[in-house]
Specification:
The chain is α/β, with parallel strands linked by helices. It contains 19 helices and 21 strands. Helix 7 (164-188) packs parallel to helix 9 and helix 11 (277-291) runs antiparallel to helix 12. The structure holds zinc ion.
């Protein structure tokens, strides 16, 4: 196969798009399915954007690449969190392997690729990058912006309180801008591999403020479908096209707060009377403003509209369920600079994981989707659980109780609950939570919250484990739905093989030979595996030892 194009649709899954395809609403997606193969694409734990895309582009589980913690990285021995970036990804990406073989890639808007590393080709980072991301080459956006509109990573109304219609319009503008940039660079420069990610197919499920906005969601997906049609028309003729997503999406029946469950079990204690995260944040904000800290920009307060935008931001941060000690940095990194000046810096220092009474807490859920951490002595800043027997007994106890935990209507909450070493493997596993879980994948999923009642009815959308995969092109079989479920880890080795490169032995996925037409070149050519080179092994071992303080 000469060239490969990956089109990424964040959060898309067949449960969402198949009814629209069947109604003829997404003709270009429909054509890919009719002419190629498709299946479900199993995500990683946790099924969130940063670890999942990083697994897709590296072919490795989060224990190897190191993005194990949703949107944030917990620094050793402290409560501080940092937003994850490409610097946390310890593995090579598809385009790094191509670069080594003197082949070119164009990569646009893939999450967690900021700051761009040196490569052969062009990389414009996506989600989690700042508004002015570090691209490769550094000034590559200039030429596009001279001939076109200003390039944007985020929509103008990213967390502002706007009507659903206005938000949709901003998302549509952003989606078209992404397509324009893709076409611009792909026509002007040579490439063997091209990847573009559309992010708002996920955001549209989280940010409309009302879960009953089916028509607005369809309009965004129709816009994406048009963009896919144009990209394929312009570039896809001689290329294999893979359509992928990082995880699925589904409507919830229940909201579940594991910290409250831990509290009821006597394993977690709060220090203050604040019972919800939002209460805590708003209290801190109000007190801060009342006291009038002198580093606060007085002329900005009160500013019309500020408080609703601030509230929107707090809701947004609250949704992550993470307590942040560095809100100001987070704001600037997420392009919320319009808010940055208006949020008192002090919030950054008073955001309370401190609301938890650590001396009386044995386990906690640091962020809704990612699992449970044991408050381990020597590792956590105020750890109380002894390593060894006490740690293992406590972990087994929680796992056993989770395995039996049921929603108020009697369904099991989790499909699988397991200690982290049974799922993650690799040198970065030690950053992961001690207990991992896969939510039960029924029709209605469960939304996990950081704070609140243990169970509460919900009709929000939330992530599911199964995303989507489809492929079409000259060498792709016209086989329709594949019986096998595919893993997100399979995409990178499949692309390398399709393009004619060896597959690194330490990738965790497999080459999806079943997607190729039986008589095609990639189907006939044996898969060549490449052992990990020795210097790489040594380097990564040194990195590990350095981090653990042994060197
Ligand atoms: Zn996502």
């Amino acid at each position: 196969m000469k060239r490969v194009v990956i089109i990424g649709l964040d959060g898309a899954c067949w449960g969402i798009v198949m009814p629209w395809i069947e109604q003829g609403e997404l003709p270009n997606l429909g054509e890919i399915l009719a002419e190629g193969v498709y299946s479900e694409l199993r995500s990683v734990i946790p099924p969130t954007t940063p670890p999942a895309w990083t697994s897709l582009i590296t072919g490795k589980n989060p224990g190897k690449h190191g993005i194990t913690f949703e949107f944030f990285k917990q620094k050793d021995g402290g409560f501080e969190r940092e937003i994850v970036s490409a610097l946390d990804n310890k593995e090579k990406c598809i385009w790094d392997y191509l670069s080594e073989h003197d082949m070119s890639s164009i990569v646009i808007n893939v999450p967690v690729t900021h700051p761009a590393r040196k490569m052969k080709g062009i990389l414009i980072p996506g989600y989690m990058a700042p508004a002015n991301p570090v691209c490769f080459p550094r000034d590559i956006l200039d030429e596009f912006q001279q001939e076109n509109r200003a390039y944007k990573v985020y929509a103008d109304s990213e967390v502002a309180d706007v009507t659903p219609e206005k938000r949709l319009q901003d998302y549509i503008d952003l989606t078209r801008l992404r397509k324009e940039a893709t076409l611009y660079y792909a026509r002007k420069y040579e490439w063997d591999f091209l990847m573009v990610e559309f992010q708002k197919t996920d955001a549209i499920f989280h940010t409309l403020g009302d879960s009953n906005q089916e028509n607005l969601r369809l309009r965004l997906y129709q816009c994406v479908d048009e963009c896919i049609g144009e990209i394929l028309e312009a570039l896809g003729k001689n290329a294999g096209v893979l359509l992928v997503s990082d995880h699925g999406m589904g409507k919830c029946k229940w909201q579940c707060c594991l910290n409250s469950w831990l509290k009821e079990e006597g394993l977690l204690t709060y220090r203050s009377r604040a019972t919800t995260r939002e209460d805590t944040l708003l209290t801190v904000r109000k007190r801060t403003m009342d006291e009038g800290y002198d580093h606060m920009p007085v002329e900005d307060e009160p500013v019309k509209g500020t408080s609703s935008r601030l509230d929107a931001l707090m809701r947004y941060l609250g949704k992550t369920g993470v307590t942040l000690e560095r809100a100001d940095e987070i704001l600037s990194r997420l392009h919320l600079t319009f808010l940055e000046k208006k949020v008192p810096k002090i919030i950054g220092h008073k955001m309370p994981r401190r609301q938890i009474d650590w001396a009386k807490t044995k386990a906690y859920c640091p962020s809704p989707l990612i699992g449970v951490r044991i408050n381990l002595k020597g590792r956590e800043p105020e750890g109380i659980v002894e390593p060894g027997q006490e740690y293992h007994d406590l972990r087994r106890l929680i796992i056993e109780k989770f395995q039996r935990l049921r929603t108020p209507d009697g369904e099991l909450v989790f499909e699988e609950v397991l200690p982290r070493e049974e799922y993650y493997h690799g040198g970065e596993s030690s950053d992961a939570p001690d207990i991992l879980f896969v939510p039960n994948d029924s029709d209605r999923c469960i939304e996990f919250k950081g704070f609140g009642r243990v169970f509460r009815p919900s009709s929000e959308y939330w992530h599911k484990m199964d995303g989507l995969f489809a492929a079409s092109g000259p060498d792709i079989a016209r086989a329709g739905h594949l019986p096998s479920k595919l893993s997100i880890l399979d995409v990178a080795p499949t692309v390398l093989h399709a393009i004619g490169l060896p597959v690194p032995r330490d990738m965790d996925g497999r080459v999806l030979t079943e997607i190729f037409n039986e008589s095609s070149e990639p189907a006939m050519r044996p898969i060549v595996y490449q052992e990990r080179d020795e210097t790489e092994k040594v380097k990564s071992k040194i990195r590990r030892l350095k981090r653990s303080g042994e060197v």
